[in-house]
Amino acid sequence: MYFQKDEQFGAKGFFVEAFTSFYTGKEDSDTLFGADRNNNDSFFETAFGFSFGKKWINLKGFVFEAKLGFGRNLLGNSSIDAIIKGDLYVGYRF
């Protein structure tokens, strides 16, 4: 959802979004978080969260976007309870 009132370029300005992430991995018993798991234990996890960011569009059509988000793991298969995601985008509008 964008909060910009100027409709000249469409979707631009400050925004908030909901996201889901699905990911797999392997945990080591020697990890930083000291999980009580066997060596190389594979897992599948999904997370739900929210991001906020800002999108800029210049007069020549170049797009720049930065966002930061936080999500909570839902399945409990990993020793980590939450994820943090960040993105930087550079593009061009045709």
Please sum up the structure shown.
This protein is an all-beta fold. It contains no helices and 4 strands. The radius of gyration is 18 Å and the shape is elongated.
Strand tally is 4
- Radius of gyration, in Å, reads 18 Å
Largest sheet: 4 strands, antiparallel
Count the DSSP helices.
0
Amount of beta strand: over 45%
Overall, the morphology is elongated
Separation, N- and C-terminal Cα atoms? 22 Å
CATH-defined fold name: Outer membrane efflux proteins (OEP)
Strand-pairing-aware structural class = mainly beta
Which key features would you list for this structure?
4-stranded antiparallel beta sheet, 4 strands, mainly beta
Report on this structure:
The protein has strands spanning about 15-25, 40-55, 60-75, 80-90. The protein has a single domain (about 15-90), classed as Outer membrane efflux proteins (OEP), CATH 2.20.200. By secondary structure, the chain is mostly beta strands. The model has no long low-confidence stretch (mean pLDDT about 80). It has a four-stranded antiparallel β-sheet, with no helix packed on it.
